[in-house]
Description:
By secondary structure, this protein is an all-alpha fold. It folds into two domains: 4-126, no CATH class; 140-417, no CATH class. The protein has 17 helices and no strands. The chain has helices at residues 4-27, 41-57, 63-82, 91-107, 111-126, 128-137, 140-159, 173-197, 199-213, 215-228, 234-259, 261-287, 305-329, 334-341, 347-359, 364-389, 391-417. The longest helix is centred in the middle third of the chain and has 27 residues, at 261-287. The termini are far apart.
Amino acid sequence: xxxxxxxxxxxxxxxxxxxxxxxxxxxxxxxxxxxxxxxxxxxxxxxxxxxxxxxxxxxxxxxxxxxxxxxxxxxxxxxxxxxxxxxxxxxxxxxxxxxxxxxxxxxxxxxxxxxxxxxxxxxxxxxxxxxxxxxxxxxxxxxxxxxxxxxxxxxxxxxxxxxxxxxxxxxxxxxxxxxxxxxxxxxxxxxxxxxxxxxxxxxxxxxxxxxxxxxxxxxxxxxxxxxxxxxxxxxxxxxxxxxxxxxxxxxxxxxxxxxxxxxxxxxxxxxxxxxxxxxxxxxxxxxxxxxxxxxxxxxxxxxxxxxxxxxxxxxxxxxxxxxxxxxxxxxxxxxxxxxxxxxxxxxxxxxxxxxxxxxxxxxxxxxxxxxxxxxxxxxxxxxxxxxxxxxxxxxxxxxxxxxxxxxxxxxxxxxxxxx
Length: 419
């Protein structure tokens, strides 16, 4: 059993979950609709679930199922009472049951999952209008695209073997297909966001969210969409790609800080150069006018299985070429390793170099310089990817931008080496 302090803390968190959901439900109430449960009722429901969970942990195992059944009965009664009126939705009634479960999970030791699901539930409730708008505009081919993404990610991925094959033992089927899933997810997220918020806002959010996971995936996905869009919209796709590529440097800094804080502090000043350039370019692209051209956005369905297979083959080729070059031409030190690793991935080399700096195998300046060199090479790869896949319009926008970003990263690498 938890201590009295833990019970008080968990109970307060449970009340906050209920208050959050209740505020949203009461705020969303229509003027002519009777309020089923609001800002007072939901905290009480969550607290009821929490107390039921505590009693279950104390040995009264019958309390939780009986209380849950009673909560379900209240939800059913509430729906029956309003079924004859004009508003027949059952959202609030279902959320009442969920609120009770959140409270029970908190008592059973799952505070973080309960709080996370409570926030996600409130978010879904609060974006009712955009979701309905999206559902109304969803075409049949777009629904099939979502189902295809489910096949690619949920069905295919777990079935693939998780071990290396082929020359140099570098081709891992699950790793390769995971990159396919990641790129496809970025494309789907970008597609949905652009349908919801328009070209500029949708692509910008895609760049931020996707850049946290993989700026390469963002570049690949948005470049393919740019090829199918009207030429005047190229700068919008360039905006998302630049944002993601800039966030890559923050991700590198975070990884270095987790492993070796001293290395991270040494990287801050040199890394400021590419970050400032990337942020400045992104701000310039964002402020460019042309909202009337957003109506021209006609992006091709991003989830074709043929395209997904091509993505997997491309990623496998990059992995193989970088490993083969490293094998046949040898390593002239950590710099060569960083340059070659940057062709495919920056995170793995960042972790490796930071660990070597932590263990004293290499100096912090050498490790930091090599990491920034890997970032410069990865920036060049993404610039070439955007130019090759994105078509002429995107190429005109991105080539000078990525040349400047790569040059800034190289200068930062040299500065880090002499720091």
